Amino acid sequence: MASKKNLFWGKGSVITAEQYLNERKPVIEKCIGCKRIVDEDYCKVYLYPTLKWRLGKCNFNTHCREVPVSGKKKMNALKASRRQARGRL
Question: Chain-centre distance of CA 67, in angstroms?
């Protein structure tokens, strides 16, 4: 069983808390405004924030939320035909 000071698993080895603090990289421009930034320059979730944004949006960001697109909803075809028959469409 691992000791209490060992926090994370790396490639075949355990990373201690001190190694984690030394390994982490500064945040990028896309991260600015996120609530998960600690020490005003580091992400508390990821060691390498640039890798998280490489393929799209970071899934833990708190500042870039998608706004649902409002518009006409799709209606079930069967329900639409019944409403049209009753004259309610």
Answer: 15
